[in-house]
Amino acid sequence: MRPPDIGPSRWESHLRALARTRQDAPPAAAPAAFTRWTTDRAPAPAPPDAALDDALWWGVLDTAIDPLPLLETAPDGPLFDQGTSRTIEVWTERELSGMHALSWIARRRARADVQSRLAATARWHVQHTQPDNATNRPWAAHVFLQLSFEHEDHDARLYAETLVHNCQTTHGVPDSLSGLILLDSADALREAFA
Fold first, then answer.
1. Domain of 134, in residue numbers
2. Does residue 63 form part of some domain?
3. 5 falls in which pLDDT band (50, 70, 90)?
4. How far apart are CA 35 and CA 103, in angstroms?
5. What is the Cα–Cα distance from 127 to 106, expressed in whole angstroms?
6. How far is CA 138 from each of CA 32, 44, 75, 96, rounded to the nearest angstrom?
7. Total number of domains in the chain
8. Counting Cβ atoms within 10 Å, is residue 29 exposed (0-12), middle (13-18) or buried (19+)?
């Protein structure tokens, strides 16, 4: 179901409505820090072996973690080198999950440098990756929506729409993890455009 060309508040409502239809099951393959973030948002230190998007999610919970040194590529490209993952699907999901985490870090810490890096990465993905390369989870949909609203970037809006659509293709409704991601994206849109 493709929503009409709508603004931030209607997108927020749309994402929340979709999230309410999610499958009722424990979320599978969720980064531990994302699960903690969506349940109680309590500060927590990262485990020593956290890497890639997992490390960025721990950075949402632990303000001592500087996210930019965790990124492995040029500031106008993807977050992580594609060689860090065995398949393009895993790499794309890590990229989008990492972008989702970075959006919270940028907002909660008022980090313009992180927001700038995030926007550059989002623009890079719109140009270079397919939104359906991942595992049908809508990570960072709000990042692409924000880019579309702030810069009238219709390609970014289409990217977000595809992410949201794809999380419904397997079961007709979002899986349980996608439902949590949609709710978190709705929260991010509310905060960004309040």
1. 8-22+74-192
2. no
3. low
4. 16
5. 23
6. 17, 25, 23, 8
7. 1
8. exposed
Asked whether residue 176 is domain-assigned, the answer is yes
Task: Report the C-alpha gap between 28 and 163 in whole angstroms.
Answer: 18
- Structure tokens that stand for 164 in this block: 């949201």
| Full DSSP string of 165-187 | HHTTTTTSS--HHHHHHHHHHHH
User: Per residue in 85-108, pLDDT tens?
Assistant: 999 999 999 999 999 999 999 999
**Residue 143 forms part of a structural domain:** yes
Binned at pLDDT 50, 70 and 90, residue 1 comes out as: very low
Give Cα separations from 165 to 6, 97, 159 (angstroms). Answer: 15, 17, 10
Query: What is this structure's pTM?
Result: 0.95
State how far the Cα of 92 lies from the Cα of 94, in Å rounded to an integer.
Answer: 5
Please state, as a whole number, how many other Cβ atoms lie within 10 Å of the Cβ of residue 111: 17
